[in-house]
Amino acid sequence: MVSLRTNPVLQKICIIIPCYNEADRLPADKISAFLQNHSHIRIIGVNDGSTDRTIEVLKLLNLDFQKQFSIIEMPKNSGKAEAVRTGMQKAASDADLDYIGFWDADLSTPLDELNWFCAFSGGQLHHDIIMGSRTSRLGSNIDRNMMRHYLGRVFATFTSVILRLKVYDTQCGAKLFKREIVGNLFVDPFKSAWFFDVELLARYIRNNGHNSTYEKVLEVPLRQWVEVKGSKLKLLDFLRVPLELIKIKRHYKL
Question: What's the predicted TM-score (pTM) here?
Answer without folding.
Answer: 0.91
